Amino acid sequence: MSSETIQEDSAKKRKLSEVEAEAAIFDKPRKKPIACGPCHSRKIKCSFGHPCTHCAQTRNPEACIYPTRDSKITVSSNYVERIVAENRRLRERSQANEVQNSSGHVADGASKVPELAIEASEARNPLHDERSWFFPLANSGPIHISEAADAAFATRLRQTLQPNGVAEHIPRMDYVTDAKLITLAETDVPWPSLARAKLLIKTAFDTVGSCYYCVRKTDIYNGLKRHYRNPLAPRTIFTCKLEALFALGEAYSCRTQSTSEDTFPGLAYFARACRTIRGVRERPQMDWIEVLLLLSMYSLLLNRRHSAYYLASAAVRTSIIMGLHQKIPEFQLTDRAAREHRVRVWWTCYTLERLWAGKIGHPVSIQDDEIGADLPSNAGLSEDDLSDFPDEEYANASIRLARLSRNIIHSIYNRRPTQVAFSQRVQAALKELRAWVEGLPKHLQLPASLGLQPLQRPQKWLHLTFNQYVIQTTRPILLHVIRAHRELWLSPGRGTDFKQVIGEPALALSEACIRCARHSHRLLTDTWIDGSFAIFDYTYTQYLFASATILAISSLSIGQNDESDKDGFESACQFIEQLHQNGNYGAKEMVRHLEGIKLSMAAFKGDSSLEALNALSNAATMLQGHGGSIPTPSSTTPGSAFQPTMTAEMALAEPSLQDFLSQAEFDPTFLDAQIQGDQVNGMYYSMLQDESWLAF
C-alpha cells in the first residue's frame, strides 16, 4: 500500500471521527412523549397517533387529545421580587430616556453641540474651583476638604470679607488623638456600681437614645443584671456594649468642665470598648453592629469626625453582610420584635452614615435603590415590646430627612459634570425639603407658640437638622449675593439696580438662609435656657456654629433686622466660647473659626468706604419685602409663655421663594449667567496661588 493511500485513509478516519463527535454533541436525547388523555387515565400504552390505536378502536377519536407539557419549578420569593424591581427600574429608565430625547430634540445636529456647551457652563457649581481642595498637613500629607463642611464655608466667608481675598484655612487640631486612646485602652477602668451603671444607661437612652435607636432596652437591663451577678466573667461583645453606653451616659450627664483629656467624661470606657472591637469579623453579629453605632456617636463628641464617619460606614457595610438592608422572610424569623429590631438597627446605620457624611461632604456606602428593608412600624408588637421601640412616625421622618442629606450633597456639592443648571438643582433640593416639612405628623411639628413646656429632644433634633439642610443648600447663594453686591458698588457702573442684577429669586433664597439660621439660633437658645443643651454635645454645637456664620453675614446689613442678627451672632459666639471653656472639643475648633470671622469682618468694615457701607445697608431695604411678618429672635423674650415662634414651614413661606419653587420651567440666569464669566475665582475669592492651598 502506497503512502498516499495510507494518508487518504487516515484523513477519512479523522473526518469521520469529527462528524461523529459533532453528532454526539448536538444529538440530544428527545423528551419522552406524553400519552393522550384516555390512555393516561386507563394506564395503558399509547401508540401516539392522531388518533392513537386505542382511541381509534373505541371509535372516539375526538377524545384523543395530548396534554401540553407544563413543568412546574420552585423559585424563591426574593428572586421574583428582584425580577419585578429590575423590571420597574428598566421601565423608569426607559421613560426617562424618552423624556430626555423628546426635550433635547433639535432640528439639526449642528446646532445641538453649542447648546450643550452652554448648559455645561451654567451647570458649574459656583462653590467649586477647577480643582479639588486639599490642605497640607505635616504628618499625614494633603487632606481633602469638602465645600459642604461648615469649616470650609467659614474659610470661604473669611476670604470674601478680606480686602485682598487672602485667608488661610484653619485646620482641625482639637480632638482626642489616637495615641491617647491607645494609652487609655491599656489602663484598667473600674466599673461603676450597679446603681451608677443604671443611671448612666438611662441617661444614654433619654438623650441620644431618644433620637437614634441602637439597642433594645430590655436586653440591656437584663444583661446588666447578669453581668453584675458574675463580674469576673470573661469580656464579651456585650461587655463592650455596656462600656460604650457608660461612655455616652457620662458625657451627657456631666455638668462640670473638662480641663484635660484625662478628665473628659466617658473617655476611659470608650477607649476600652474600642480595644475590644479591633479587627474585622468574618461572621459578624448584631451586637457588633450595635457597638459600632454607639462608638460612632461618642467619637463625634471627641471631634473625631472621620472616626465617627468610618464607624458608621463600617456598621452599614457589616449590616449589608448580614442582610439587614433586605426584608427577611417571616418564616425565617418568626419573632416580630426581633424582626423590628433588625429594621430599626439598619435604618439607624443608614441615618448616621448619611448624617456624618453630610457634615464632612463624603459619599455613602449604599444607594437607596439597593435597599429592600421595611420601614419602621409598631404594627404587631406586644405592649411589652412597644417600650423598646420609639415613635415609628419620628423614625420614618428622620429616615426621610437623612435621605435628603445625601441628595443635597450629591446635587449641590458634587463635582461631576452635569447638564442641570446649579439654580435648578437648588430648586429641586428646596422642593424636597418643603415636601418633607409639609408631610410631618402634627405631633412632630412646632407649635405656633411655645408655652412653659419645653420641646422634646427628638422634635428639636428634626427641626434643627431641617434648618441645617436649608442652610447648606442656600448659603452658597447668600455668599454670592454679598460678593456680587460689593463688586457691583465698587465698579464704575455702580448706579445699576442691584435688585435687577441679582434677581428676585437670589434675594429670596438668601433671606430663606438667614431665616433658618435665626430659627436654629432661637431653638438652641431656648435649649440652653431650659438646661437640655449638653455641654459636650457636638451636633447642637455644630448647628449653633453654622447659624452663627450666617448671622455674621446678615449682621453686615445683608438681611432684615441686621441689628438683631448682630446680637444673635455675638450671643452664639459667647455660647460657643463657654462650651470651649467647659472642654467641648468641637467648640474648641469652632472658636478659632469665629475669631477669624470677627477679624475678617473688622477688616471688611475698615476697608470699605462709607458709600460702600451705605450701599450694603440699602440691601436690607431691598430684602424688606422678603421679611413679611415673621417674628425675629429679638422680638420676644426667650422663655416667655406663649410667645410667637417661627416654624420650619415659615422659613420657606416667603412669596418670592414660593414663586421660585413653584416654577416648573424658569430662566436660571439670575445666578448662572453671573457665574459663567468667572471661571477662575468661582463664587469666592479663591487663592489657589497661595502656597497654603494645594489642589489636584
**Number of continuous helical runs:** 28
**Proportion of strand residues:** under 5%
Secondary-structure content class: mainly alpha
Any idea what the radius of gyration is? 33 Å
Cα distance spanning the termini: 81 Å
Compute the average pLDDT.
78
Number of strands: 4
Q: Major beta sheet, specifics?
A: 2 strands, antiparallel
Question: Could you explain how this protein is built, in words?
Answer:
The chain has 696 residues and is mainly alpha-helical. It has helices spanning 3-26, 37-42, 53-57, 77-103, 112-122, 150-161, 178-185, 194-206, 217-229, 237-253, 267-276, 286-301, 305-322, 336-360, 383-386, 392-412, 422-438, 457-490, 498-502, 504-529, 539-554, 562-582, 585-607, 610-622, 624-627, 648-651, 655-662, 672-676; strands at residues 134-135, 143-144, 449-450, 643-644. Among the domains are: 31-68, CD2-Gal4, CATH 4.10.240; 153-175 and 415-665, no CATH class; 178-283, no CATH class. It is 58% helix and 1% strand. It has a two-stranded antiparallel ribbon with strand order 1-2. Strands 3-4 form a two-stranded antiparallel sheet. A hairpin with a 7-residue loop joins strand 1 and strand 2 (143-144). The protein starts with a helix and ends in a 20-residue tail after the last helix.
